[in-house]
Each structure stands twice: as structure tokens, then as C-alpha cells.
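2024-03-11 09:14:02 DEBUG pipeline.ingest accepted 1 chain
2024-03-11 09:14:02 DEBUG pipeline.ingest length=312
2024-03-11 09:14:03 DEBUG pipeline.predict start
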Amino acid sequence: MADTHKRGNLVKSIGDYLDKYELDGAEIDWEYPGRQGSKCNKYSSQDSANLMRFLHALRAHLHARFPDEQKLISLAVRVTPFDDSQGPMKDVSPFAEFVDYASIMAFDINGVWANTTGPNAPLRFTHNRGLPFSYTQAIDQWLEAKWPADKLVAGVPFYGRSLTTREVIAAKDGVDMYVPFSNEVPQGDLDDALWYDVCENVNSMSGIWNYRHLRDQGLLRSVNSTGEDWVRIWDKGSETPWLYNPRLRRMISYDDQESIARKVEYAKSKGIKGMMAWALHGDYQNELIGTVGGIGPLCRGEKTSNDQAASQ
């Protein structure tokens, strides 16, 4: 991105790819401009300025190459606006001129990288509990940084993350979910396996549970009822559920119909463009995407078809 020639090559290669496979557009997922993200990443205070130059060039190239089509350019972004030398930018509206929408990745908030257990994707964060980021904070901060509401999309996870608490905790509503955990990440669902992270130099499980496996592996017999040894707990602060197994000292923070319905309502109240999910394969019998699309039993409003819900 910092090299004009390389930036131009990337722009052209994206155009070639869209042309070859007859795609609608491209999504740019840079994690993250002006911020390290992975330990393998190099970053600079000029990253965001270079991203702007890239988006300008990409939009111009796609307009010239596909004059009869409006190819989409979208962004996957973190829970705070792009960084410059002063931290999160106060005005990101110039970026929006070149893209169709930005999708906030409002998940992976708390995990093994945090100091305690906590919600994977809180609707709201609790002061002095876990990391100070959430779905509502992210939407509000991007809007306050002058990103247009009609180009903002809020993301929800169709998966949860698991950790093992150091001590057995009381499995009941109202119990503090922010507790010390073992450094070893437990195995998640049946799709999880050991993987080597070259950047962190660790060989570990991910601890991820796709929602569909919470259901088909029997941890959740229904949306609100659990299998043997597991208890569903509702955290009032984050407005998300979590599961706990006292015998294994295992906790899983995830999203379900109830928590996603609340996120749908907040998105609607802010008038943003819509919502996205990571990822559709994690759903179980359309329980979650149905809630996002407004056809779930916990949602209010005009009903839509399953096809419409999937497209939204």
C-alpha cells in the first residue's frame, strides 16, 4: 500500500479477478490500518492515508474497466475507526466516497488475548469488565467519526469462543462472567483441531464453537434449554448468553436468537444500512439468519421471505 507501483498492480489484479469470475465486487479486509493486529504485521501512521489512495485508485479503475456496471467495493473494519498518528480518526467520511459500505467486525472482543473471560460479542461492554468494545460502541463511534449511516453494516457472529476457568464458578444468572482462565485453549466443536500460528509461535486449538454445533452436538437442545452438564446463563451487562459446564470448568460465550434480536433492534434504531454475519455455515436451521432477517420468533416487524432474509 505504501508503494505506488505495487498499489497499482494490486488494483489491476483485483479488476482482473472480478472480470475473470464475473463477480459483483471486492471486499478489502486490512487488519488494521495504523494498528498492528497480528504480530507478523508491519504498520505505519501513514497506513490510513495509503488506504485512501488505494481506494481512490480502485474505484477509478473499476469505473473505467466496467463502465456499464457499478462494481461494489466494501470494507471489513474493526470496532474503532481507522488510525492515524493521533489514534482513531475523527472524520472518516472521505473514505466512504469510494466504497459502498463498511462492515464492522463486532466480534472477537474478548478471548484468550484478554485478562479474563468475557463476552465474545457484547451488545454493550461493562465498565472495568473485559475490553471496552462492543456492538453499540462500534456503531456509535463510526457514526461519530462521520461515516454515513447508509453505508454502515454491523456484524454478528454465528459462533462462540470457549475458555476454561481456573476455579469452578456458580452456574446461575447474575454470576460474574469475568474470571481468570487457564492459558490453554480447550477444543471447541467437532470442526476444531490443533493449528500452528506462525505469528504467535503457538500450536493451539481455537476454542471456537459454531452455533450449529452447539445445537447438533447437544450442548443446546433448543434455543434456551441445555444438554446434560451445561447451564445457559444470561449476562445482563453484555446482553449475551453463555454456557458453563462446572465439571469441565468450561465456559462458551456465543450469540443466539435473543442476543441477535437485540442487535437487530439497535441497528434499526440507528438507521444503518444493514447487518452481516460471520459466517452463514455456522447457523442451525436458519435460526440465526432468520432473526437477522426479521422472520425469527423473537423479532418484531414485517415478515419477509427466507430468500429475502438470506440476502439481507
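2024-03-11 09:14:41 DEBUG pipeline.report The chain has two domains: 4-159+257-311, 160-253.
2024-03-11 09:14:41 DEBUG pipeline.predict end
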